[in-house]
């Protein structure tokens, strides 16, 4: 079997986190076919310097897009360009353990999995661990229990259901719901093999009117298509209205509602 890590990089990414990401990639490299990095538009000089350092390494396939068109477009460009059987997701500010790829590959080989989700460590801007979240499909209609940084899938099945769709900030959730509705086989590795970074910018982005409107658009389509259950509509209305609360209060309420930190 062959597997590829898919990553999207843009001007707002942190060079320090990107260097740590590359360290984790190299620690898993013996189990990978390649790494695709889609550069979504022009990036900073420091990020370009890091990219120049891997330019001659054939292990990396760097795809530069002339302008920033957003994460969904960059992800789909990477998926179309990928020639491996399996795709493993990781963002340039995410971390992963040195045996993550090996354990994911083993799960695909020893099961009938179409998609594999692993547990994640929730970390802050300083790499301090805030909690651990294990995938739990039973919560899929109330929240997104699957982190992009803890996901891997057969390329063929994701291509068959239409790749990522243009739901800003909800593109992963939309994909997971369509995967479940299609009846694809999901396997879980509860062990936290990767991380999800709760940055200040991310928390601030997940509140306010614009985010609320994006969530309403996602919810409307998900309900029409039958990807979300209507019996949870009242819960979702409360969730959507909470986006107008201060970001610090949103995080506090979420951490109280769930047994441990669950941001998505």
Gist of the model:
The chain has 264 residues and is α/β, with parallel strands linked by helices. The protein is built from ten helices and eight strands.
Total individual domains: 1
Derived structural class: alpha/beta
Percent helix, as a range, is 25-40%
CATH structural architecture: Alpha-Beta Complex
- The multimeric state of the shown protein is single chain
> How much beta, percentage-wise?
15-25%
Termini Cα gap: 31 Å
What is the count of helical runs? 10
Q: Please identify the top-level CATH class.
A: Alpha Beta
Number of distinct beta strands: 8
Shape: globular
Succession of helices and strands:
EHEHEHEHEEEHHEHHHH
- How is the CATH topology named? Spore Coat Polysaccharide Biosynthesis Protein SpsA, Chain A
**Unreliable sequence segments:** 257-264
Short key terms for the protein model shown above:
Spore Coat Polysaccharide Biosynthesis Protein SpsA, Chain A; 8 strands; disordered C terminus; alpha/beta
What does this structure look like?
- With 264 residues, the protein is α/β, with parallel strands linked by helices.
- Strands 1, 2, 3, 4, 5, 6, 7 and 8 form an eight-stranded mixed β-sheet that branches.
- The longest helix has 17 residues.
- It is globular, with a radius of gyration of 18 Å.
- The C terminus is likely disordered.
What's the helix and strand layout?
Layout: E1 3-9, H1 15-28, E2 34-40, H2 45-53, E3 60-65, H3 71-81, E4 86-89, H4 100-110, E5 115-123, E6 129-133, E7 151-154, H5 155-160, H6 171-181, E8 186-197, H7 200-205, H8 209-225, H9 233-241, H10 247-257
Parallel strand pairs: 1-2, 1-4, 2-3, 5-8
Antiparallel strand pairs: 4-7, 5-6, 5-7
């Amino acid at each position: 079997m062959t597997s590829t890590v898919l990553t999207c990089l843009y001007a707002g990414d942190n060079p320090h986190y990107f260097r740590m990401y590359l360290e984790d990639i190299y620690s898993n490299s013996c189990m990978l076919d390649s790494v695709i990095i889609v550069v979504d538009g022009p990036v900073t000089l420091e990020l370009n310097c890091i990219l120049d350092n891997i330019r001659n390494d054939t292990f990396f396939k760097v795809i530069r897009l002339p302008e920033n068109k957003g994460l969904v477009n960059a992800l789909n460009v990477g998926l179309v360009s990928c020639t491996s059987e399996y795709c493993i997701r990781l963002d340039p500010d995410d971390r992963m353990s040195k045996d993550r790829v090996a354990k994911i590959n083993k799960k695909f080989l020893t099961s009938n999995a179409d998609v594999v989700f692993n547990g994640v460590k929730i970390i802050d801007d300083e790499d301090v661990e805030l909690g651990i979240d294990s995938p739990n499909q039973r919560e899929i209609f109330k929240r997104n229990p699957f982190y992009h940084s803890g996901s891997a899938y057969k390329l063929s099945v994701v291509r068959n259901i239409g790749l990522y769709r243009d739901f800003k900030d909800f593109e992963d959730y939309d994909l997971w719901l369509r995967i479940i509705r299609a009846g694809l086989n999901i396997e879980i590795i509860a062990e936290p093999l990767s991380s999800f970074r709760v940055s200040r910018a991310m928390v601030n982005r997940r509140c306010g009117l614009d985010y609320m409107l994006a969530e309403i658009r996602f919810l409307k389509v998900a309900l029409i298509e039958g990807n979300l259950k209507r019996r949870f509509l009242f819960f979702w209305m409360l969730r959507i209205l909470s986006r107008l609360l201060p970001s610090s209060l949103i995080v506090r309420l979420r951490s109280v509602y769930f047994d441990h930190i669950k941001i998505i």
